[in-house]
Amino acid sequence: MMDEQVSILATINGREVSAIVPARLSLADFLRDRLGLTGTNVGCEHGVCGACTIIVDGQIARSCLFLAAQVDGRVVETIEAAAATGRVATLQATFVRRNALQCGFCTPGILLTASALLEQTPQPTRDEIREYLSGNYCRCTGYQAIVDAIEEASKSTSNDTEEGSRRDERITGD
Amino acid sequence: MKPQPFRYVRPDTLEAVLELMAEHEDSAAILAGGQSLMPLLNMRLARPSVVIDINNIGEMARISVDGQHLIIGALSRHADVLDSPLVDAHVPILIEALRHVAHPAIRNRGTFGGSVALADPAAELPACCVVLEAEILLESVDGCRAVPAEDFFLGAYSTARRVNEIVSAFRVPIMTPADAFAFDEFSRRQGDYAVVGIGAIARSSGDGSMSPRFVFFGAGDRPRIARSLGAVVGKVGPGGIARGDLENALSEDLGDLDQRDETDAFKRRLAGVLAARAMARLSQTGWLARGGAE
Fold first, then answer.
1. Coil/strand/helix, residue B80
2. pTM score > 0.80 for this model?
3. Interface confidence (ipTM) of the complex
């Protein structure tokens, strides 16, 4: 059977994108191969690893479980835009400081998921962090540093005073 | 791991969906949340020739109260059911159950109808439908019908849905604050499919007596009602059942698991632990007793 082609018009990272895509093309493959947005990674292609996580209409979702055809009329944000707009700036800084990434394959998905968590629960407990991030696999770090980084980010965004950042330095011993 | 080619359609009305289903029957697949269908497509375990995307059918996503029932549209996202004040007020066991379902990104897309129509033996929502004595509402070009949950799940991934029918909504008898409930499961990772799980509701009647109903999932090819356990607990209450009597009742209800392999015997063992925990939870009697309810 020939691949049926579907026409889509979507807003991706703030830009209107018009394309004709095979019906069975995943959003993950569309973002990576057609638009060159390779920050989104493809791990398991069945929704369990979280490496493909992006934001659709303001909510995190698995791009490996979305057809490109489905984003017609929708708003998509990838890690590239989240980084450029500063959505994940605090998290990026704490991830670097706490060694919360090694190969970095899981990191875009984890940053977007953590960002969604902090939007919903600005001061999560470590248990809440672990539970919310339970859909994101990391093979390198053992997760401890990731939880540390998210916890630290949650504290620094609510402590925008000089005293607050000095307190954070005492915690990390920097 | 890419799907076989298929034709993609995204109708704007339920009528159009039903016509497509009548035309294509089981060579069409319904795309709702996609959190189960897409993995099946990606692994080529499903090879429909037509994928019908129903995400434009907004009327299928409504949650409302109709007299003594909560009506949950099949397209309701797990995240929206979790956030629904109506569900929290009237069917709080669903809130407990959905905390065990998958992960936030999946709950943003996955739907109530999709989970029930798939009928995975280890899934939470089919068991909730059975313990709640919900009705599954089905629509087709031939009309509508309602199937009691107890009669809907026929086996692993097998339901009473006909090939031209769509699961359109759920009619759930609402709970009262005097009803007690418990929900628990074992899984290897938070959000994974259950190794084994239990849903329990003890509905109170006017005279103060309670009718308990226990349903296990992950312990067979479909949700299993533990009738012996329900009978014993109905007589002596969740606080009055000795562990030995609990295990005896479970051996009647789930005894076949002991005859099979080590995995099933392990599930049988875990079922006993979950049942004991459920008794402790039910003994708090009435959901006003749950922490922070007020």
1. helix
2. yes
3. 0.91
CB-CB contact of B99 with B183 (8 Å): no
Quick one: tokens of A72? 């017609």
Region label for B191, one of left (φ > 0), alpha (ψ between -120 and 50) or beta (otherwise)? left
pLDDT tens string, chain B, 294 residues long: the values are 899 999 999 999 999 999 999 999 999 999 999 999 999 999 999 999 999 999 999 999 999 999 999 999 999 999 999 999 999 999 999 999 999 999 999 999 999 999 999 999 999 999 999 999 999 999 999 999 999 999 999 999 999 999 999 999 999 999 998 899 999 999 988 788 899 999 999 998 877 778 899 999 999 999 999 999 999 999 888 888 999 999 999 999 998 887 777 788 899 999 999 999 999 999 876 655 444 333
Strand pairing class (B166-173; B69-73): antiparallel
Q: Does A65 touch chain B (CB under 8 A)?
A: yes
- How far is A152 from A97, CA to CA, in rounded Å? 10
Distance separating alpha carbons of residues B125 and B120, to the nearest angstrom: 9
Q: B17 and B57 in contact (C-beta within 8 Å)?
A: yes
Q: How far is B256 from chain A (nearest CA, A)?
A: 32
And the tokens for B195?
Answer: 């190794």
Strands B7-9, B28-31: pairing kind = unpaired
Cα gap A148→A164, rounded to integer Å:
17
Cβ-contact B212, B282 below 8 angstroms: yes
Q: Select from A24, A29, A130 the Cβ nearest to the Cβ of B5.
A: A24
The type of residue at B267 is K
Task: Name the residue among B197, B225, B231 with its Cα closest to residue B211.
Answer: B231
Nearest CB partner across the interface for A50, out of B1, B43, B105: B105
Residue in this structure with the two tokens 């289903």, named with its chain if needed: B21
Please enumerate in sequence order all residues whose Cβ is within 8 A of that of B41, keeping only pairs 6 or more positions apart, or say none. Answer: A24, B3, B4, B6, B29, B48, B51
